[in-house]
Write a structure and sequence with these properties.
The chain has one domain (about 5-240): Porin. The chain is about 15% helix and about 55% strand. It has three helices and eleven strands. An eight-stranded antiparallel beta barrel has the order 1-3-4-5-6-7-8-11. Helix 2 runs parallel beside helix 3 (about 205-210). The chain is elongated, with a radius of gyration of 21 Å. The termini are far apart.
Length: about 240
Amino acid sequence: MSYKNRTRMRKSIISIFIASIATSLSAQTGYFSFGYNGNMFQSEKLDFVIDRYNETRTFLDVTMEYPHYLDGFDIHAGGGKQVIFDFGFSWRSSYVHASGVDASGINQQRDLKYKFGAFDIALAVNVTGDAETKLAIGYNQTLGSEKVYSRVAPVEEVENTDYEKMLIDFNPGGDVFLQLLLPFSGSGGLIIKPYYHFSYGKTDYAPLNNTLNPATAGADDPVLESRLGGFGASIMLAVGNFD
């Protein structure tokens, strides 16, 4: 693990330790939730790599889109009445592709999968007191992993072609969020959580550029670093004690 990643991990562990102090405040109520998570993430240099891929392949009939919209699932548990402690796991991914007949006359397709998974530990403050519908404002510490996979093959063979691992980066960050709890009853409800995500450090997409764009990568910057960030929301069904 590089010095940069070790520094990120130390910051994350400190944040988790501070958040864990709040567990003693979360015994009054508790819940378990599962649901959908979608977000619009963007990383400038990842977009650069995809732009370069499209620009240098004029034969493409279908150009590769940016993998900005990721979606997947959230699974969380938490508790607390005035101060809410929450922990869980979130998983999101995006799929994009490009295709066209190259100079050899073969209709080639390249698929790219972008994945982001994170363990989450959050603290939030309930701003509605004892009201039945509860609104909380909080911060979520994410221990994330950013991954990119790709494969290329003739169109008729691509489904039987294995993906290759292009990039893996430990990417801790944070979410600033609102959490709205709409109870159906004393033991069931709906959680709606809009958020803004930002990463602490930068990801270097130069290795991905070297692989996808070998003919032009030598003329590009040797380091292509940018931060991941964007807005998202999760909608989860929850069971527990909401009184």
